[in-house]
Design a protein that fits this description.
15 strands, alpha/beta, L-arginine/glycine Amidinotransferase, Chain A, 24% strand, 3-stranded mixed beta sheet, 253 residues
Length: 253
Amino acid sequence: MFKNTIVKTPGETYVNGLTTSDLGTPIYEKALEQHEAYIEALKKCNVEVHVMPKNADFPDSTFVEDTAVLTQEFAVISNPGAPTRNGEIIEMEPAVKSYYEKLYYIKAPGTLDGGDVLQAEDHFYIGLSERTNLEGAEQLKAIFESENYKATIIQLEKFFHLKTGISYLGNETMVLAGEFINHPDFASYKKIIVPAEEEYAANCIRVNDYVIIPAGYPKTKQMINEAGYQTIELDMSEFRKLDGGLSCLSLRF
């Protein structure tokens, strides 16, 4: 059960954030509305929501997931791989410290984005991407193993972040898309396979009694419902424009 979440309001400069998509420039006012709806959905999932103030110096800083990795016992402050995002950890560290006594840090030359880290019970999967390098992944793997967790490093082929294409719903169930559908490291899990045309829906989040999913992906929603989960749909259009998904917008612990 999650008790707490950390989110950060998008700043006015959000529209200038990094992206690899060709979906156009985000509409700031609409992004704010969608972020408010996201907060309300988290509250419906029965968690406390800590809302950090916006910071125009960091256009991408609403994507708080990339700045830390949180477990029940300890937190890891990451070292984001995009130079323009690296300073986001300065504000995130005191926010995380208000909840945790034990903190670890990913240190240069290691880089790590939290979006490349997926927890499935006592096993963490760490993706190697353009933002997370081998040094950063190996540092995190060593931290997890020192705390009696398992950790596996996975080379990404196409996805931007690991969690762009995979989510863990509990009950040994993975939501998978693209390169992860037949990936040997996930062969033992029950699979909800996202069709290619709904690939964006692979990034969803289980928060206590609900699975929050992006709106507009009926096949994936139906499969998740048929697997026994209640769903909450949210319009994510303005965050998708900057490569953002549902998991990116919060730290859940």
